[in-house]
Amino acid sequence: MYGKIFRQMYKGTLASAGPWQALVTFQQLIVLADVDGIVDMTADAIARETTIPLEVINAGLQALEKPDPESRTPDEEGRRIVRLSDDRTWGWRITNYKYYRELKREEDRREYHRQYWHKRKTQQKTQQLNKNSTLSTYAEAEAEEDVKEDQKKDMSGRERPDPVFEVFDHWRKVWNHPKAQLDAKRRKVIAEAIRIGYSPSDLCDAVSGYRASPHHRGENDRQTTYDSIDLLLRDAKHIDAGLGFTRGPVPQTSELTRHNIAVLSQWAPPETQDAPGRPKQIPSGDGEHGGGVREGSLSGAG
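^ that's the sequence the OP posted. Answer follows.
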């Protein structure tokens, strides 16, 4: 048998609180376990099989059998392993093995989908399929799978967090749409954004960032608020723009206005200049600005 070691193993109390023998032993048990997470072996047999010193295995097993109130898995009071029988001193079951096995299957499922769509796109290259249509179809398939995943429970019977709903609920609160519903179209948009590499946190920041845009808040010639989540997270360009707004509000004066303000700040009455009686030469706008303040055009300047 073989087992998959998840990176989050190194972020929990097993790694941070130790002892280190427990982490080493737990890794060996994952490899030796059957499909149900059972390791029906003695400590001596585990040591011989893995070539890990027996004293390391014994110390690790003792630590893994202890309750851990800080464990992210509440089953069995946080114990990583439990005895198969109280009548013997060997043989254990990994308490959260099935949970991580399901995570592995989920990753395998996503990898299958990636390979399937890559192969399909290659086969249909000569037919010049529209790329956006292909991505849309993929996103719909992902959205349907995510709907099914929403119904699954974790080992404690609680519903697992849904990253798509997390982003949607953040948008409802930030843009004040408490009665908005997460339909298939909105789910597809968010799921596609996550699929191409944005984390739920990134998407929440982008949604919040658009609050710094006067145009999207309705300060435009149409007096229309552009706050639809379908628009804000439409594609990478829109998401990046939202993230950009988190660095500060966009300027509310035009480039020409800012140019004229800069010119006016340098203007002085003619009597203060080197050539008496000669009006101040105020630079006019160049082609880029479309013309600024010109000579003698200032009110009260001459």
